[in-house]
Amino acid sequence: MARYTGPVCKLCRREGEKLFLKGSRCLSPKCALEKRGYPPGQHGQETAFRRGRASDYANQLREKQKVRRIYGVLERQFRRYYNEARNRPGLTGENLLQILESRLDNVIYRLGFAESRAQARQLVQHGHFVVNGRRTNIPSYTVRPGDRIEVREGSRKRSYFKLLREMAQEITPAQWLSRDLNTLSATVVRMPERSDIEYTINEQLIVEYYSR
């Protein structure tokens, strides 16, 4: 399964804002954006200094790239999500964000069972979670209201999951999810709404980008 394997701190610097791709490190003084708040590359500082007003296309592209990087999705899959969102009733931009939020790896992250979406993706791929009683190792699996997600019985003996209850207590799960730390399980209460998205995203720019 294709995924980005390069340095993720460069992605935050390129977008000029924290995308929280490395979990707690992004909140510490070690964050690359805190140290070098300019685009990566040999001429990053010069570009930041000389940068003028960006074109409409540049703004649309940057917003699309930012959302792709937040959710760890490559271009082909992102375009497929956009086409699916466009064919659904309602606003295309909000439909797109709902589809991205409903990915299993994002749900694991939103529950506080992983520090980042990349870590959540790895945990899912290694088969540590079951959905509705079935072991699921597909990070892009789409959850639906009523789905029950829990840590696989065989994985509970691992040191990471033994400490998970204590770690997850510090994280408030998304409002559309119901979490039970005693059983390391959760239920999808409803589909995510636009107000549930924490990031500053202008989804209309993405719609404009693909509508050119």
Features:
212 residues; alpha+beta; Ribosomal Protein S4 Delta 41, Chain A, domain 1; Structural Genomics Hypothetical 15.5 Kd Protein In mrcA-pckA Intergenic Region, Chain A; 3 domains; globular
How does this model look, in words?
This protein is an alpha+beta fold and about 210 residues long. It folds into 3 domains: about 1-50, Orthogonal Bundle (Ribosomal Protein S4 Delta 41, Chain A, domain 1), CATH 1.10.1050; about 55-100 and about 195-210, Ribosomal protein S4/S9, N-terminal domain (Ribosomal Protein S4 Delta 41, Chain A, domain 1, Orthogonal Bundle); about 105-190, Structural Genomics Hypothetical 15.5 Kd Protein In mrcA-pckA Intergenic Region, Chain A (Roll), CATH 3.10.290. Helices cover about 40% and strands about 10% of the residues. The chain contains 11 helices and 5 strands. It has helices spanning about 10-15, 30-35, 45-50, 55-70, 75-85, 90-100, 105-110, 115-125, 160, 165-170, 205-210, and strands at about 130, 135, 150, 175-180, 185-190. Strands 2-1-3-5-4 form a 5-stranded antiparallel beta sheet, with no helix packed on it. A hairpin with a 2-residue loop joins strand 1 and strand 2 (about 135). The chain is globular and about 55 Å long. The relative contact order is 0.13.
List the helices and strands and how they pair.
Blueprint: H1 9-15, H2 32-35, H3 44-50, H4 56-71, H5 75-87, H6 92-101, H7 104-110, H8 117-125, E1 129-131, E2 134-135, E3 148-151, H9 159-162, H10 164-168, E4 177-180, E5 185-188, H11 203-210
Antiparallel strand pairs: 1-2, 1-3, 3-5, 4-5
Helix pairs in contact: 4-11, 5-6, 6-11, 7-8
